[in-house]
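We modelled the chain as a single entity of 155 amino acids. Its sequence is:
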Amino acid sequence: MNRTVTRLIPLLAGALALAACSDHKTKPETTSGRTATATTTTTTSAPAKRSSTGTSTPPPRSSNRKEAALPENTGIAACDEYLASYKSCHLAAGVYARDQIDNRYELMRTSLLRQSQDPDMRGQLGARCTSLANQLKEALHGKSCADVPAPASTR
């Protein structure tokens, strides 16, 4: 049991590191050979409200920035293969509870897709996905990803 936990620590650390990086914003695209012109949008926000105690409450923040649409895949073979096997392999390895797999998959997928769009991170992403796949393979202890345990009975 202790050896299993020790082997899962690097896998969990890697997954947490990727999840922590998932909220990093991508750089705006630049065009080569052209000068980009910035457009400034001025918005008027509601003034701060005064409470009965005389303190100011700032108005709610609004975001004018739109999230860029993410592609369907990363375009990096190691990452796309890792994502394709993520759910079945994590279930077979018993890394996460069955009810956590979908949410964790979406976090990992979003993180890898965002990083694949960042020119500063894209070059390193293949090695990162290969490392994640190797950690998952170790956590499987020779089991196949098809060896997914049956869901627990609800009785």
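As a brief sanity check on the tokenised model: The chain is about 50% helix and 5% strand. The mean pLDDT is 73.
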